[in-house]
Amino acid sequence: MGAREAAPILVAGLRRLEYRGYDSAGIAVLDERRPGGIQRVRAAGKIAALADKLGVEEPTGRAGIGHTRWATHGRPCERNAHPHRGGSVCVVHNGIIENHAELRARLEEEEGRRLTSDTDTEVIAHLVDSHYGRLRAAALAQAGGEGARLVAAVQASLAELRGAYALALIHDDHPGTIVGARSASPLIVGVGEGGEAAELFLASDVAAILEHTRTVLDLEDGDVVHLDADAGLAIHDLAGQIVERPRRRVEWSPVAVEKQGFSHFMAKEIFEQPQAIRATTSGRLPRAGEDDLGRGEPSFPELAELDVPALAARAKVTMLACGTSWHAALAGKYLFEQLARVPVEVDLASEFRYRQPIVRPGDLAVAISQSGETADTRAALMEARRLGATGLAICNVVDSSIAREADRVLYTHAGPEISVASTKAFTTQLAMLTLLAVHLGRRTGALTLERAAGLLDGLRELPVALDAVLGQAAAIEIIARRWRSARDWLYLGRGLAFPVALEGALKLKEISYVHAEGYACGEIKHGPIALVDERVPVVVLALEGPGYHKTLASLEEVRARGGKIIALASAGDRRIGDLADDVILVPQVDPYLQPILASVPLQLLAYHLARLEGRDVDQPRNLAKSVTVE
C-alpha cells in the first residue's frame, strides 16, 4: 500500500513466495476511483497463469492483497483461489480454520449468505462483513473513525475462529486501508524506506518485500494490524489495546533470492553450501592460533546457563522436527550420544503432542526448522516447554515463530533457501549440531581437548572438501543419465550415514516423483532385500570409518541378488571399484563430519535425475516450502 500501483508489486511479491504454494493464485486491488471498489483476478495454477490474465486488464489502485495457494480445503481451481469475497470484504489467508463448517452453516442458514468455494477461508470474509454490518458506525467513529469500525469487525470475527491464521483483508468502503491479523501462522509488516507515510506491506515471508524494504516488524499471535495510507500503521491486541512491536533490519540482500545464472534455485543452493557452512561455523569456531585451552572450545554464549552435567546425568534431550530437519535431528542423536554421552530422543514433531510424551523439568527440547515456522514443530516445542523442558531452537530465519517461542535460539546462517527441497539448510543444521555436540562433550568431560580441537579444525576445513565434491557435479550427472529409467531406488547407510541415506531417498522422492526408500544397512536383510533385482539401483554409503566393513558386507548381500550398486566412498578406497557399478568419491574427513560431505552428492544425484525427467525441480507437485498448518 502506498503511492504506486499495487498490482505489479503484488504479482512480483507472489512470484517470490511461489515456493510457499502454487496450486492457484489471485489478487484483489481496491481503487476508490472505480465503481464497486475492489477488482479481483484469480487463476488456477502457477503465477504465470495469473500474470496472463492480468495482461488482458490489470486492476488499478494503490492498495491490494494477493495470495499463492497450497491447497488444504478444496481442490486447486479458480473458485477456490484466494482472495475470497464476502459482501464488501476480500480476504487472503494462510492457515486452517478448524470450525469453518459450523460457521459456514450458520452464515448460510441464519443470514442467507451464499458461499461459493470449498475453502475454509471464505467464511472469514463473510464473517467480517456480517460483523461490520452490525456495528454502529457512528459510535465507533467517535472512538477512532471508520477504520476503527473495520478493525472492530475483524476482532469480533477472530473471536469466533478456531485454528491458525495469517490474514489480510480489504473493504470496498475503505480505500487506502488493509487490516491483517495472525495466530500461529507467520505475518510481518514491512515499512517503506520513507517511513510510515510512504509504503506499507504485509507478507508471510520477508522474501516478498526485500526489493522494497528491509525494515520489518514481526507480529505476535493475537495481533491485529491496521495499515492506513494517511495514518500509517497501528497494531492492536485482541482486547483492542494499542501495542508496539520492535522493528528489525533484514540483512539478506535482494540478490540472495535470485537464481544468479543457475537454472534452478536448488542448483544454486547446492553450490552455496561451502559458504553457508563457513557462515554457520565461523562465529562459533576458535580463532586460528588460539591457545591450547581455547582450541577445542566452540563459542555458545547462549547456553552459558545450561546445566550440561545434570542434563547428561539426570535428564535428556528431545529433538523435535519434521521432514529433512528430522533427518538432521537423527544425526544429532548420534552426535550428542557419542561425543557428549547425553541421552537423546528424536521425535517427529507431528506425533509428539499426541502420544503423551514424558518430559520432565531439566530436560532440553531442541526444535529444528529451516523456516522457524513449521506448525507441527512449533506446537511440539510449546508442549515440551509446558511440560517443563527448556526450549532451544535451531533455525535459519531470524525472529521466526519458533525462534521467539524458544528460551534460546541458534541460527544457522544458511541464507534464504527458495527451492522447496532443502539442501543448504540441512547441511548447516548438521554443522550446528556437530558444533553443539562438541560443546556438550567438553562440558560433560566426554570429549578430550585434543579430540574436540580436531573436530573443530575439520569443520573449519570442510568448505574446501565441499568444493571438491561440487567439482564432481558433471560426473554425477552421467550416473544420473545411466539410471534415469529406474522407478525404485534403495539407499543404505550405517551409523551416521543412516540419516543421510534417509535424506537422500527423500530428496529423490520430493523432486523426481520416483519411489525411493532409505534403510539402515543392517535392516536390508530384514525385508527390503526382497525388492532387490537388476532394475533397482542401490545407493550404498560406504565411507571409511566405523562400520565400514559391515557396510561392505551389506553391499555384498545386494550384489549377490543382482542389485546394481552406486557407492559413495572415501577417496583412496581401493576396494570399492571392484564391488560397485558406479562410484562417487568424496574427500576423507573425520567420520563425524562425513554426514555433511556425503549429503551433497546425493542432492546432486536427485537434482540431475529430476531435471532429466523434466520435473519442476524448485516447485515439486503437492509440496510447499514451509508447512505452516498442522
TrEMBL record:
Q: Which residues form the signal peptide?
A: none
Can you give the residue ranges of the SIS domain? 307-446, 479-620
The annotated active site, in chain numbering, is 625 (for fru-6p isomerization activity)
Instruction: Give the main location.
Output: cytoplasm
* One Gene Ontology term of the molecular function aspect: carbohydrate derivative binding
Biological process (GO) annotations held by this record are: amino sugar biosynthetic process; carbohydrate metabolic process; fructose 6-phosphate metabolic process; protein N-linked glycosylation; UDP-N-acetylglucosamine metabolic process
User: Which part of the chain is the Glutamine amidotransferase type-2 domain?
Assistant: 1-230
Q: Does the keyword Cell membrane apply?
A: no
Question: Where would you find this protein in the cell?
Answer: Cytoplasm
A GO cellular component entry from the record:
cytosol
**Main enzyme class:** transferase
Q: Does the keyword Cytoplasm apply?
A: yes
Q: Which UniProt keywords apply?
A: Aminotransferase, Cytoplasm, Glutamine amidotransferase, Repeat, Transferase
Supply the EC number(s). 2.6.1.16
Query: Could you tell me what reaction this enzyme catalyses?
Result: D-fructose 6-phosphate + L-glutamine = D-glucosamine 6-phosphate + L-glutamate
Quaternary arrangement and interactors, per the entry?
Answer: Homodimer.
* UniProt-listed NCBIfam families: glmS, PRK00331.1
Q: So what does this one do?
A: Catalyzes the first step in hexosamine metabolism, converting fructose-6P into glucosamine-6P using glutamine as a nitrogen source.
Q: What is this protein called?
A: Glutamine--fructose-6-phosphate aminotransferase [isomerizing]
- Tell me the organism: Plesiocystis pacifica SIR-1
Q: Which gene encodes it?
A: glmS
